[in-house]
Amino acid sequence: MSDAPLPRRPRLVSHALVRRHVVDGSERVVIHDPQSGGLSSLEPRAWDIARGADGTRDLDGICLAAARAGAFHRRSEVRFVLEALHGGGLLADGVAEPATPPPRAGARPLALLPGYALDCDGSGGCCGVYGTIRFSRDEAARARAVLPAPLGSDIDQRLFMPETGCGADEPAGALAVTMVDGACAFLGEGGACRLHAAAGAASKPAGCRSFPATFVDDGQEVRVSVTCECACVLASAAAPGGEALVPADARVAGDLPQLAPPGVLPEAIALGAAGSAPRRAFVDWGDAVRAAVTARPPDDVPSFLWALADAVDARGLALDGVEAALTCRAPWTPEALAAWTSALRARAASKVLASAAWRSRTDRVRRMADWIDAAARTLDEGTAGGGDAASDEQPVAGRGADASAAAYARKLTLALALAGDERFYLQALLFGHHLAGPLPVADALRDRALRCLLARQVRVPDTESERARRHPLAAVEALMRGQGLDAYVTPVAR
Amino acid sequence: MVAQPVQLAIGEEVTSDDVEDAARAARFRLVNLVPAGAEHPAQAIFTRDAGTTVLYFLQGSAERRLVLTGDGAERAAADLRRALEEAPRSPP
């Protein structure tokens, strides 16, 4: 909250994510603040007022911009809207510094996750779990040409919003499409993309075409791995066939010019208690760990991740802790685990509340938030109560005895699928350098251990698809990154 | 023949919100806000009838009044008077 006076020339902060949603047929605008986890819901007219706050206009200028947009009623109302945004820490003063585009890694060779191909079931599951479906300006123009009125209402005229802030700091920046009950406006009945159906895969935005691939430039090559945020991604790991992550003729990053520049591993990687390590050492460590878990998969992936975190804290990137971690079970102390599970539980509970406040009951994110919240409570209660929920021999897909043989067989199948998912997840994380991010490596490892433990507690209802039921880790992962559940680590991480 | 400007006095109890509400009810649209200068008070300028009728809301320390110009000034003044009389006063 800010008590400071309203900025002279207010500007919606660049990190604010403003999204237009259609919820049960009604239009609304939601502002997400990924830094604070805050969320504000606005009437569309209030957004037409707020979007004039581009850092070049004073209050009168914003009134006039609102009038031109047909949104002006009262000067006092304009001030009220701005003060509400300012109170939420969403306004800065003056124009933003232009963003520096990340360097292109054109000549860098592509290294693909070995042996992986995607078997997408075409159900559109991944089109309804993200807060942002990103379009470049050209992609949005093409989409409008292919399907001028996807919603069949006047909202089609304002189908796209700036990806960040009010768009003023990046006039040519990317756009985010309107979401309908949490799903992309171009998602059709039965889960098919209407752009794809109307004009082929090339008419989809690059992010959709490359999903679920992740691209990270480690200074020597661009690692192409996957994000495990869709059940199909995990199901593909054990399925024959499927589509390659990049076109067969793509050899270097420059062969994929339509992609946003890949993420770049920083020169120094924060490890945790052991300080930091050069990028090259981190890459070598990741490859060595991956070789070790390929040769001998860990008995229990979350235990392995946690033990590896302890080893990194104690000895940095020395490899002598890896072998011991492969066979360890529940290496955490109850207190250490409880700190993480309670933070996770609190964040999941707040996600449920936030979702229920404005999302439709049919919104997949809202449904997933409910599953995750229940699982986080189960996990935390198991930890706090001295039970060993986090080290169950078998995944707890449904607690209590299953009477029927069919139910038992199903549970066993689920347990096997979960173990397979966790091992694949580990491979994808290590290959794609996903452990190097905003968290020190040791905390990132503990975070990933928690995600596996959480997924074991998720009960996906029978009304969901078979794949969603078999691969609950995908729901966990989708909510973590796609919906900001990963902010749970803030109170517990270093 | 050029239409004469029409002036409307507004009472102290009428707030800026009331005027803006009345202007909107009378189909005026805000087109400019002019800060006070050495020789003129602050003004909010609205138009309607495709810009041919103009409403000036003058807000000086000594005067608060509405001035309408253009061919539709008389009719617009009547619309404004009605809107100001009928509209509920904005809360303080």
Give the topology, please.
The complex is a heterodimer of chains A (494) and B (92).
Chain A: E1 10-12, E2 17-23, E3 26-33, E4 38-42, H1 44-50, H2 59-68, H3 75-87, E5 91-93, E6 110-112, E7 134-135, H4 137-146, E8 160-162, E9 175-177, E10 179-180, E11 183-184, H5 194-199, H6 206-210, E12 213-217, E13 222-226, H7 231-237, E14 263-264, E15 268-272, E16 275-278, H8 279-295, H9 301-315, H10 322-327, H11 334-358, H12 364-384, H13 405-431, H14 441-457, H15 466-470, H16 472-482
Parallel strand pairs in A: 2-10, 6-13, 12-14
Antiparallel strand pairs in A: 1-5, 2-3, 3-4, 7-9, 8-9, 10-11, 12-13, 15-16
Chain B: E1 6-9, H1 16-25, E2 29-34, E3 42-48, E4 53-59, E5 64-70, H2 73-86
Antiparallel strand pairs in B: 1-5, 2-3, 3-4, 4-5
Helix pairs in contact in B: 1-2
Structure in words:
The complex is a heterodimer of chains A (494) and B (92). By secondary structure, chain A is an alpha+beta fold. Chain A contains 16 helices and 16 strands. A 5-stranded mixed sheet of chain A has the order 4-3-2-10-11. By secondary structure, chain B is α+β, with helices and mostly antiparallel strands. In chain B, strand 2 and strand 3 form a beta hairpin. The relative contact order of chain B is 0.27. The interface between A and B is small, with 10 and 13 residues.
